[in-house]
Amino acid sequence: MSLISSLYTACLRPILFRCDPEDVHNTALALGSYASTHTTARHVMRRVFTYRHPMLEQTLCGMYLKNPLGLAAGFDKNGHMGEAWEALGFGFAEIGSVTAKPCMGNAKPRLWRLPEKKSIIVNYGLANDGADAIYARIPRTTFPLGISIAPTNSQEIATVSDAIADVCFTYMKFLDKASYYTLNISCPNTHGPRWFLDPDNLALLLNDLEKLPHIRPLFIKLSANLPDKILDTLVALASQYQIDGFVCTNLGDNNPTIYPGGVSGGLLRARSNEILARIYQKTRGTVPLIGVGGVFSAQDAYEKICLGASAVQCITGMIYAGPTFVRDVSKNLVKILQRDG
User: What per-residue string of b and e applies to 254-266 under the rule 16 or more CB within 10 Å gives b?
Assistant: First the structure.
């Protein structure tokens, strides 16, 4: 653990964890937004927070990644931090989920910490500024910046056709800025149906997407809550279309009598790893997989890589470990790779 990380966990985190989680989140985004638009700030951040090593570099679906550690969708919902994620040491970052129309999301409070479980409960309900506003905000950059797409969480999306049109609008909106796309078909925090967990509906969506330009890698984010048989059906179906890979997984089950929403972090690790290993076996390693859920250390990241992940994503680990999280994990991951040859 680095000195900065030790100071964060011993001094700053206890203070932050006494504050409202969403207020802390918004403050972090404001600081990151400043860094994203100021070259000097990003230069200082790179000196402090980044770590480079040839063993971590790879090309994934045509995207050059400096390391396999990515930011998962859900933290920078509105693209405020842009290139600041590269300065924080990430190999790639995912914005959103973005919907065609602005969405206020669920009522506050909608974010809770479970420190004893190293987890958080999330119930934002796809809150975001909408595709037009987010498109105008994010930069054109060589840093791999993905866009997570979901149907707008609104009563206006009343049919499958509405949901498909909503997703296709957002897909087309970001064609010249997105490095890749992730279809979020599995957000557990919406009021209406999760339309595309139904194989017939997913087939309709993928049919329409295949009619659009396919010039960016396209991933599907799988649910942590579905039975294995349904997951297998969805993966087999998606593999018949121009799907480049899968993200394993979305938020997991939670006890709604305590807090509404889905769980991330430590409580999600076991199930997300089960699904990651299962999808790798089902696809015989022929498509890239991104593992997400419960990454707090280099060993956690390495475990997902050994289970079949080409890259990993995280949010909760960074919240608990602080801004040197990616640097520390990257350095220790190199040591593990060297140890194991």
Answer: beeeebbbbbbbb
